Structure prediction request, 473 residues.
Amino acid sequence: MEAVIVEDLSYRYWPEGPLVLKNMNFRMARGEMLVITGLSGCGKSTLCYCLSGIAGHRRDGVMQGQILLDGKDIQKLRAASLALEVGIVFQDPDSQLFSPSVEDEIAFGPENLCLPPGDIRARVDEVLDLLGISSLIEANPYHLSGGEKHLVALAAVLALDPPLLILDEVMSQLDQQAVQRVADVLKRLKDAGKTIIAVEHRLETVTFADHLMVLERGALARWGPIEPMTADREFLAAQHLID
Amino acid sequence: MHFLTLTQVNFHYPKLSRMALENINLEIEQKSITAIIGPNGSGKTTLGKVMIGILQATGGKVLLQGEPVSEMSLAQIGRRIGYVFQNPDLQLFCATVAEEIGFGLVNQGWEPARVKEKVDFCLEFFQLAEYRHVFPLLLSQGEKQRVAIASVLVAENEFVILDEPTIGLDAYRKKILAGYLRKIASIGRGMVLISHDMGFVEHLADRVIQLEKGRIVGDSERKGRNGYDT
Prediction:
């Protein structure tokens, strides 16, 4: 069964609002990684909100079409069930962090999955170590730098261990060393069977992905295997995606 | 006289075991582009906020053209130094994009016709014209970032500090921003660029200051087109 099926997806933020996503169709197998890119305002984050189930549950939002995650219709899933299917790291980590310490922040998800305390401890320690942020365990997330906040938000989502990960420019605020570490983690997760959807401007950091999607004004401008598409400098330059 | 002088500046966040800034000694000239780079958590943003008094140094002195920043109001500093925050959500509050960009000018008492002219220019230049009447917080992150940058640069402060201005910007908009910053620098407006985006910094900065764990570990002047010399 395919991990993600998107059929005729369109979205507007309010009933009379402009179409922010227009008639999108794509499919992903389990363990695949998709990179979404495009100019700012083209609908990348909105697509992430749709795929994570957030957009479909907005009071004023109007979603048409269908999104199936592992065969389940995302609009029919309650928030608690959605959290077991998909984890999202927002572009702005400040909109995601709320706990008084990094440890509490990461433990919050597993606690709410009612895992045994020993398992929660193990998951927290594992993701802190994985992302190289063990030294931040007692820090208040609000006192961290932008890049560190993003790593904490990613850790909190990884601790939930969802089969589908959606990452909205999670590497944009990271230094080179952290970018490499996160890229290695994503590669390992992908090899372990996680399905990953990542919004990214710097395509050279995610060459290990399977597919690249270029969005243009809410529509799919191109979709294909990432390697030949990133090699097509003429196309990327025409889309203003590289200098 | 230097535009900004920092002498033995320290900063410590409550409940954090280590110093965020330690023994920072720095002189920054007005008519130059100074980049502050360093890994995540090295103190770049803290240093920017200490420079303009949003955070008060816990030790040492910060002088703005010889005057202690600690004795100036934020309004006094803000009239001279524009500041673009790392997170545009912390900066945007007006009902429309046009209002947001014009807010500073209106509050500095500019003539309405001149405000309109400047706002129109910025909307066009930063490719925001179609969002003129849109509530800024409904925009995408990259668009919000452009609004935040435009609303600071429009005020024509003699100096600006931009904290990670390229976050959320695509390659095309980065190029446009670089062109604008180069242009305002050429007419004598200085700036500090806080960034981890070396590709962006290398094209613009006259000087690169490198931070690590709250300390200055490198200070290089541009030498020719291709690099920096410590």
